[in-house]
């Protein structure tokens, strides 16, 4: 018998029932629904709407249901539409007609809004743990491979050498911002809609604050219409999830390229690689590729949710039921992606020699050579011209900037329109100084500002990250 069937004649069309029910996915809210119901029943008792023995009987029944859910002993009846009605009927089966008092002063509208907030709160806490695990993996690798030098790129072309650790710590920064966004979302979501009723507010003098406090909420929603129809917290969560997936996807893309033998910078451990059914030579960084792929699902979930809400008038509309598949899938996808990437990064094999050889290709230390001229008083724009000429010479000669002979350097200085550069032509210490600046170590050490790639700055950043993670 349908709980709302009092004025209905005849049975539901099976196609309609199957199409409109949500139990296939909203059973994930079972524990949250029970926890919310227990607090609501306590509130009904405080308001004098239930006798003490009724409160006790219902709460004991709900606790029994919770144990059954946790032991996976409860089965769901699709005919009962959703988790709320499944649990209410299960309660009635166990404690009898007193269960009919549970839904006093409550609608499924404020009930599901409460469940979703409780679910999101604990899910964000679980995702935060996974983000921290990912950060630990990055920080661990940065610590192990602290001296490795990577070709830093812009436009996917060699730009300037950077410490590999510096590159990894950039992702730690992104993930820390992700944590901040998740915490912000959690804080705004952590208010109780219970007492909003169907849309106009419960018809009984419920102490909403007391019930909210019992559920660990920071307060109550201020408007009953908004309380039942606000899903901003779902959008915010999906936005934070999607951006975190985008960060993982960017790293996944890099790991995939770095694994190609043309780069040869890293190799995924066998435990995080797959093979080919046909090509015996293959070792593929599958987890990274799939993380990149799955970011599409999470971005899609955000789009789904924004589009779902866009045209909805107040207050509750059935469309909102479809927030769940998107949110549940996105959360599970993000958490699994974080954990698999953490494992992959923690076990990554790094080839420092290949990285170092590539770091020197493409005259990546040219900026450092220009900076050395500026330290001698040359205007930066003039220094840029001089070094560009030197890069041209080196390229023609097929040699590095650190191998140019004195005469080539003197000629480049003499051709400058900067009087200080011209005056340096006679200074015998200049060529050696420029060649030294053209070395990888010198170039990296030269970027000695807060947030720069100089080893002492990276060591400081690593220490901050470690302290934050308690490692
Ligand atoms: N299954 C519904 C949902 O998830 C519960 C709320 C239903 N409310 C209603 N008035 N039909 O949105």
Quick structural summary:
The protein has 471 residues and is mainly α. It has three domains: 5-104, Fumarase C, Chain B, domain 1 (Orthogonal Bundle); 117-357, Fumarase/aspartase (Central domain) (Fumarase C, Chain A, domain 2); 361-469, Ribonucleotide Reductase Protein R1, domain 1 (Orthogonal Bundle). The chain has helices spanning 14-20, 23-26, 30-46, 52-70, 83-95, 108-144, 164-189, 208-214, 224-229, 232-259, 286-310, 323-346, 352-360, 366-375, 380-397, 406-414, 419-423, 430-437, 440-446, 455-469, and strands at 149-154, 157-163, 266-267, 349-350.
Shape estimate: elongated
Number of domains: 3
Going by helix content, strand content and strand pairing, the class is mainly alpha
CATH superfamily of the largest domain: Fumarase/aspartase (Central domain)
Radius of gyration: 31 Å
Sketch the topology as an H/E string, one letter per element: HHHHHHEEHHHHEHHEHHHHHHHH
The CATH topology of the largest domain is: Fumarase C, Chain A, domain 2
| Distinct ligands | arginine
Number of strands: 4
- pLDDT below 50 for ≥5 consecutive residues: which ranges? none
Largest sheet: 2 strands, antiparallel
Estimate the strand proportion: under 5%
CATH architecture field of the largest domain: Up-down Bundle
Largest sheet, spatial ordering of strands: 1-2
Under CATH at level 1, the class of the largest domain stands as: Mainly Alpha
Counted by DSSP, the helix tally is 20
* Head-to-tail CA distance between termini: 58 Å
